[in-house]
Amino acid sequence: MIKLENITKTYPMGKRELTVLSGINLHIKQGELVAIMGPSGSGKSTMLNLIGCLDKPTSGNYYLEDKEVSRLSGGELAQVRGKKIGFIFQTFNLLPRLSALANVELGMRYVGGSDRKKATEALVRVGLEERANHRPTELSGGEQQRVAIARALVKNPPLLLADEPTGNLDSKSGEGIISMLTSLHAEQGITVIMITHDANIAHHCQRIIHLKDGEIVTEETA
Amino acid sequence: MRKWLDPITTAWNGVITHKLRSFLTMLGIVIGVGAVITLMSVGRGAEEQILTNIQSLGSNLITVRPGAFTFGGVRGGVSQTLTIEDSQAIAGQVPNIAAIAPSYTSSLQLVYGDSNTDSQVTGTTPEYMAVNNLETAGGSFFSYDDYQRSNKVVVLGTNVADTLFGDTNPIGQQIRMGTIIVRVIGVLESKGFMFGSPDDAVYIPLTAMQQTVAQPRTPQGGRIVSAISLTVSDESHTQSVIDSITSLLRTQHHLTAMAEDDFNIMSTEEIAATFSEAMGTMTLLLGAIAAISLLVGGIGVMNIMLVSVLERTREIGIRKALGARERDIWGQFLIEAAFLSFAGGIIGVVGGWGISFLIDSMGIMTTLITPDIVILAVSVSVGIGLFFGFYPAWNASRLNPIDALRSE
Question: 3-class SS at B151?
Answer without folding.
Answer: coil
